[in-house]
Design brief:
This protein is mostly helical. The protein folds into two domains: 48 residues; 218 residues, Orthogonal Bundle (MetI-like fold). It is 70% helix and 0% strand. It contains 15 helices and no strands. Helix 9 crosses helix 10 and helix 11 crosses helix 15. It is flat and about 75 Å long.
């Protein structure tokens, strides 16, 4: 009886310790966003104080108004949403079909082609910026939203993530579909794809976060406000001789809120998506 009570006390103590560690980690993770939000409510003089103050002494909201006045912020929002939607829909469709083919359809050279696509993950993104720019110039797509979105409309990571999920689904669906006379696309669309909601939602979160935060490629391919996205637009607040940190913080808060809301509402799919990449194939 005494040993059982001691074990229960030990379990409670471990849970309390784990809870404290997780809470502390959560606070550390949230601290940059809290600092950014509080800094957006400070005046420029207060923000540059030494030593800095954590909480604003006299909170002001004019920084948000100045950002909306000095930048076509709603236009940047619209462009970012359009690019994100285009990339997300394209990745879900293209990566799903490619993943199904590599997981369930046997064809010559399947493994070699799959390894070749995975090798793309080892190529630094910066190495393909110039080739991508030359291709867009050749196609006449420079300074268009399609050019901003096009390089992110398929990803080897998304294909790999969904393939890992398709490998966990039984092959009997494939056999039954063939018996009923379905084509490979029919089997994919009617039998397999409806079962991949978890993996698709995880890919959606990864794609939205990547697209929303993308900076270098939109900066290179966009040359006017008509095609600039939020990340590039906020960078315009950095002048050659003066940087408006408080306005940058205000713009960053407005740009970050939609992604935070999406992550909070779909965080279980995000965790499951990370776990999917470790499924043995």
């Amino acid at each position: 009886m005494g040993n059982r009570i001691n074990r229960q006390k030990g379990d409670v103590a471990r849970k309390v310790i784990y809870g404290i560690v997780v809470l502390g980690g959560g606070i550390l993770m949230a601290l940059p966003f809290i600092w950014m939000t509080l800094s957006s409510l400070k005046t420029e003089a207060e923000l540059m104080m030494t030593p800095p103050s954590f909480f604003p002494r006299n909170p002001v909201t004019e920084n948000y108004a100045l950002v909306m006045r000095d930048l076509p912020f709603l236009l940047f929002y619209r462009n970012t949403i359009m690019v994100t939607v285009l990339r997300s829909v394209s990745q879900i469709l293209c990566c799903s079909m490619a993943a199904f083919a590599f997981a369930k359809i046997r064809f010559p050279g399947r493994n070699m082609i799959f390894l070749g696509l995975l090798a793309v993950l080892m190529v630094p993104h910066q190495m393909i910026l110039v080739p991508n720019y030359i291709i867009m110039r050749f196609l006449g797509l420079s300074n268009t939203l399609l050019a901003v979105a096009l390089p992110g409309m398929f990803s080897a990571f998304g294909m790999f993530l969904l393939r890992q999920f398709y490998l966990t689904l039984p092959d009997e669906f494939l056999d039954s579909g063939k018996i009923d006379g379905c084509t490979h696309f029919g089997i994919f669309a009617k039998l397999y794809f409806p079962l991949t909601q978890t993996a698709v939602m995880a890919l959606l979160i990864f794609t939205v976060m990547y697209s929303w935060n993308d900076f270098i490629w939109p900066l290179i391919i966009s040359s006017s406000d008509r095609t600039r996205v939020l990340s590039v637009g906020i960078a315009l607040l950095q002048g050659q001789s003066r940087i408006f940190y408080n306005q940058i913080m205000a713009g960053a808060v407005m740009a970050t809120l939609p992604v935070i809301a999406l992550f909070v509402s779909l965080q279980r799919y995000f965790v499951q998506g990370i776990a999917l990449t470790g499924v043995k194939g």
